[in-house]
Amino acid sequence: MGAWRGTRRGRRTVAVAGLVVLAGGAAVACQPGGLGSATVAYTTDQTATAALEHRHVDVNWLTCTGSYRDGGGRGGTPAPTATVVSVDCQGETDDRRKIVVTGLVTKAVDGACVRGDLKATVDGRQVFHVSGLGDCSAGPGPTYRPPTPGQPKPTVTVTVTRTVWPVPGK
Description:
Blueprint: H1 7-29, H2 37-54, E1 59-68, E2 85-93, E3 98-109, E4 113-122, E5 125-134
Antiparallel strand pairs: 1-2, 2-3, 3-4, 4-5
Helix pairs in contact: 1-2
């Protein structure tokens, strides 16, 4: 099999998988009545990176995951009464030292702040242990609003970028 054979299908599969993950994350993030684990993970990533860099830690990358605790559904599934999301972040500094941020989040304002109990270490040395990160007085991001009867429902727009390479000799 040549180097280009099957590549288009592979790229298509990866693109479709990415869209499924995004759609799933959006559904959880818009859950009314509780914290969204995807929102908490994203917001912790953003605010922890800013807090580390404020403390002169050169963050190369940081990625966070969130899972439900107290009141959450089985196996990390969302429940309307979820009040605590456990967050775990792993990353690396520019000079390849290991970054770990962990904690329990009780409040999150999309992209702006998280509140709870959060601790960050770089190569095992504690950089911060705080009850919150970010600015919770900032306005929240998009909010879930149930559809009003008789009103048109929002539609989903998916943008797909395709790169078409010219085939020499054709």
